[in-house]
Design a protein that fits this description.
Strand content: 25-35%
Strand order of the largest sheet: 3-2-5-6
Distance between the termini: 58 Å
Shape: globular
Largest sheet: 4 strands, antiparallel
CATH class: Mainly Beta
CATH topology: Immunoglobulin-like
Order of helices and strands: HEEEEEEE
Number of helices: 1
Structural class: alpha+beta
Oligomer: single chain
Length: 133
């Protein structure tokens, strides 16, 4: 009985975490993948209305070292920039590749979700394509 309860609790917890996250896939523009060796992929969730480079801090960020594209990502409260920040959308999701691993390095390819399509918590099929600037 104890094992059943523990499994039930873990299953409910896993569903709860998934329901309070945003996930999807980051791809790269055709022909660009070969030039992206090593480095770090950053995936950011910002409140709708903010834009990349506007100085507003992201709500959450996931750092993926040595990404192999396509890359799956999942953002939730554990990725919060400030511990305890509620992970509540709607969001604009963006991604940036940095060869040197610096989140503020804007020399690599970037991509984001369309401004007119806010991402809600619970979405699982968010697609972002990195393109050279």
């Amino acid at each position: 009985m104890t094992t059943t309860f523990v499994l039930f609790f873990v299953s409910v917890f896993a569903l709860s975490v998934h329901a309070k996250s945003v996930s999807g896939t980051v791809t790269v523009d055709k022909g660009l993948e070969k030039s992206l060796k090593g480095g770090v992929l950053f995936v950011f969730a910002k409140k709708v209305g903010s834009k990349a480079g506007d100085g507003q801090m992201p709500v959450a960020v996931q750092r993926i070292v040595d990404p192999k594209f396509p890359v799956h990502f999942e953002l939730n409260a554990t990725n919060a920039m400030v511990q305890g920040t509620p992970f509540e959308g709607p969001f604009s999701i963006s991604a940036r590749y940095s060869a040197g691993g610096n989140a503020t390095d804007k020399s690599g390819p970037e991509g984001s979700t369309p401004i007119d399509k806010p991402i809600k918590v619970g979405e699982t099929a968010v697609l972002i394509e990195l393109k050279k600037k």
